[in-house]
Every structure is written in C-alpha cells, then in structure tokens.
Amino acid sequence: MQHTKTDSDATSLTASSPPRSPPRRPVYYVQSPTHDDEKHITTISYHSTPALLSPTASPPRSYAGHHSRESSTTRFSGKVSSNDVALKRFAKPWDTQFNSIEEEALLDDDVSEKRIPRRCYVLGFVVCFLVLFFVFAGILYGAAKPQKPKLTLTSIAFERFMVQAGSDSTGVATDMVSMNSTVKFVFRNTATFFGLHVTSTPLELSFSQIAVGSGTMKKFYQSRKSQRLVTVSVIGDKIPMYGSGQLLKSSKGIPTAPVPLKLSFVVRSRGYVLGKLVKPKFFDRVECSVAFDPKKINVPMALKNNCKFL
After folding, report:
1. Cβ(183)–Cβ(154) under 8 Å?
2. Is the dihedral of CA 91, 93, 95, 98 positive or negative?
3. Can you point out the beta strands (E) in the chain?
4. Buried b (16+ CB within 10 A) or exposed e, 183-212
5. Domain residue ranges of the chain, discontinuous segments joined by +
6. Single GO cellular component annotation (predicted)?
7. Mean pLDDT within 288-300
8. Which of 15, 178, 281, 309, by CA, is between 20 and 30 Å from 193?
C-alpha cells in the first residue's frame, strides 16, 4: 500500500535527518625533521566525519542513497587535497628554519676553524714593519753612498828643516832631522740630507820610507752641503835617519839641494742618515809628492797637482 507523503511528514523527515556537512574536528600534525633534510609528516588523527562521541552524532542513514556516498567520497577527497597543501605550507617554514640553523652551525664551525689567532696578526705586523724598515734603510743607504765627500789638498809650507849629527836612544851615531810644516786642505760635504763626522789618520812626511814628521787632525762634524779649510801641523824632532842620512847633503844643518818627501794620510768620514742604523762610510787615501826647497822657507807650495787619491 502506497502512502502519499504530506508536507508535515517531509518537514519532520528533514528535521530529523543529520546535516550534510558535519563539523570537522581539529587536525593535529607532528613534524620530525631529520639531518638529511627529508620531510616526514605524521597524521595522528583525521576524520572526514565526526566521531561517535555523542548520541546526536550518528552516521548518515542509508536512505541518503548512492548519491550521498559519492558526495561524501568527493568531499573527502577534496578535503585531503586541500589539507595536503596546508600541510606543505605548514611544514615549509619549519624546514627552512631547521636548514638555516644547520647552515649557520656549519658556517660557525668553518669560521672557528679558519679564525687566525691574534698573535699571528701581531707577528705579521712586526715582520712587515721590519721588512719595510730595512727596505727603506737600504734605499737611504743606496742614495747616500754616491754622495762622497770631496777632498782638495791646497798647500804645504815648511817653517824649518834641519839636518844635524846625533845619536838615537841606544847611543848609535846617526844623522838626525828636525822639521816643522803646515798642511792645508779643503774638506767638502756634498751630501744633501746628512752630515759627516770626519777623522783622519796621522799625516806623515817621509823620506826614503822613514817618517820625518807627523801631525794629527782634530775630528770635526761637517754639515750637509758645506765645506771647511783644515789646517794640520806636521812636526818632526830629531828623527834618526841611519843610512838614509847620507843622501842628505847639508851645510850648517841646512840641505843644499831639494829634498824629496812624500805626504800620506787617510781621511775617514761617516754619516748618520737614519740614526745609527744607516751609517755610510767614506775613505779618502791621499798621497802627495812634496819637494822641500831650502830657498822657499815659509812659502806655501801648491799640492793640487801633486796629489793622488787611492
């Protein structure tokens, strides 16, 4: 017997039927990051339909038909796809954060391994400073070496030259020579950026390899690009001549012929360019041929063309 559904029956049926879109329960996810940067996401619970927690939350009745099941399945599939996208979006920041932490840790390890101790910086600075300092000192030394001082012998004057008989300290009879003379020369410092400390060996006048007179020059300082006239007294008193005295012919103690003599000395000069670290040294060895003329007592004799520098 077929019954016709009334409006009241349809309304009661609609009111008693469960809703098509039941409320979804919250979804919980646990992420387990690993060192090999793989993404593992574990779903603890997921329900497309509400769990049977209360009598009112009953599953849909069978009268919904095949269409209801297909719609439910379609909704389930659609929700899974959207949730997968949400999971990926949720997991990406965590994955990026863990990757950043691991990269920062690796960078910190590299920096700690490549970090140079402070003592190495100090040692490197000292070595570089010393290298630059010695290079600079070498440059100064090379620039100062060609600036050699100039020495010019001007004149020699004999005040006295006498030959007389006598004996040495042991009582051996021999001819004795006594003489006084004055030697003058000009010392010029040609350097442009340093002064010179000048000394000299004793100036010697010799006859037949026997020194008949000597004199000492006082040491002095010569400033840059300047010059001075140096005067040295060469004196000899009763110098024994032994066999060489026979070559000296004299009358009343005065030689009757010119006496060949040799003047020799060494001028040493030293400059202090960079304190005592850069000290260029210069040596001038001088030899001059001199002839004593009895007729030219107290008369200066030029030495400019009679000297040579060794």
Report:
1. no
2. negative
3. 28-31, 41-45, 150-167, 173-189, 196-200, 203-207, 210-215, 220-222, 226-240, 250-251, 254-255, 259-271, 281-292, 301-302, 307-309
4. bbbebebebeebbbebebeebbbbbbeeeb
5. 24-46+64-115, 147-309
6. membrane
7. 93
8. 309
Choose which CATH entry (2.60.40, 1.10.3210, 2.10.25, 2.30.110) describes domain 147-309.
Answer: 2.60.40
At residue 306, φ and ψ (nearest 5 deg) are -115, 10
Distance, CA of 186 to CA of 40 (rounded, Å): 100
Q: What is the pTM of this model?
A: 0.58
- Residues forming beta bridges with residue 270, ordered by sequence position: 197, 281
Residue 204 phi, psi dihedral angles, 5° rounding: -120, 135
Residue 9 token pair: 């029956």
Nearest to 284 by CA among 201, 216, 211: 201
Q: Under a CB-based contact definition with an 8 Å cutoff, are residues 203 and 231 in contact?
A: no
Task: Name the token pair of 288.
Answer: 């001059």
φ/ψ of residue 25, rounded to 5: -80, 155
Per-residue pLDDT tens for 24-71?
555 555 555 554 444 444 444 444 444 444 444 444 444 444 444 444
Query: Which amino acid is it at 299?
Result: V
Q: What is the DSSP letter of 68?
A: H
On whether the CB atoms of residues 301 and 163 are closer than 8 A, the answer is no
Q: What gap in Å lies between CA 198 and CA 221, rounded to an integer?
A: 6
3-state secondary structure of 278: strand
User: What would you measure as the largest C-alpha separation in the chain, in angstroms?
Assistant: 191
**pLDDT tens profile 175-205:** 899 999 999 999 999 998 899 999 999 999 9
Q: Which residue has the tokens 């030689």?
A: 255
